[in-house]
Amino acid sequence: MTQPPSQAPPTTDTVEALVRRQLSEALGGRRGMVEAAVPTLTFTVVWLLTRRLELALGASIGVAVLELAARLVQKQTVKFCVNALVGIAIGWVFVHLAASRGGSADDQALAYFVPGLLYNAGYAVVMGLTCITGWPLVGFMIGSVTGDPTSWHTDRQVVRLCSRLTWLLVLPCAVRALVQGPIWLAGHSGSVSADTAVAALGVLKIAMGWPLQLAALAAMSWLLGRNHTPLQHGGRAGGQVSPARGQG
Question: How far is CA 15 from CA 132, 222, 229, in A?
Fold first, then answer.
């Protein structure tokens, strides 16, 4: 029986392309990044101008719905608009919880930003744990290219490279949580005014969103570009991933 042709061996170039594609899909390109930012910006501006929480939430939903309609008319993917609507819905749930517990309008406005803080903190912890346990997430991305999700783990150099790449994905989320978390706590405790905290969180959520992801991508590309051990299939059966030496 004729053996099916094996997949092309992954190199640092293909790994870099994979990482770039994964982040590009997650960010949605320039338009996807704008679609993610505008509802948050709308909520922040309307709240600061009117201090009417229902109006701010409604305005952010309206903007997201308009973005969704534009995508549908143009017959393009609505994934990023739906993600924005889901994010607003989750924020509304936290606002409602704050209101049900007797929170003031300021507490409710701050509650809108809690899901993002929890997401970034949780993502950083989970991704960091994959590195600490020796099974970094980027390794499974490489496994998706080779067709064997775990063979990369047999080579320490590959594991080390994947750990470094995964830590670079952890960094943006950790920075967001560490910077924005104290601001939220200060606004919640009254150390700073709620308006100041909401304005800062709204601006930082946008400023520390896709720019940090792009910075992480650039750092990953630099790391892969300077790496001297491109990933290739080994000579043993099963398509094991191993680094090729002598590349400079």
Answer: 21, 12, 12
At 52, phi and psi to the nearest 5? -110, 105
Plot region of 228 (φ>0 → left; ψ -120 to 50 → alpha; else → beta): alpha
pLDDT digits (tens, 9 = 90+) for 199-235: 999 999 888 987 888 888 788 878 877 654 444 444 3
Low-confidence residues in the chain, pLDDT < 50: 1-7, 9, 228-248
Question: Burial of 9 by CB count in 10 Å (0-12 exposed, 13-18 middle, 19+ buried)?
Answer: middle
Question: Where would I find the H helices in 74-193?
Answer: 79-100, 105-111, 114-132, 137-146, 156-189
Cα(28)–Cα(36) distance, rounded to whole angstroms?
Answer: 9
Listed residue (219, 204, 136) closest to 171, CA to CA: 219
Residue type for 238, please? Answer: G
Of the candidates 147, 168, 167, 100, the one whose C-alpha atom is nearest the C-alpha of residue 241 is 147
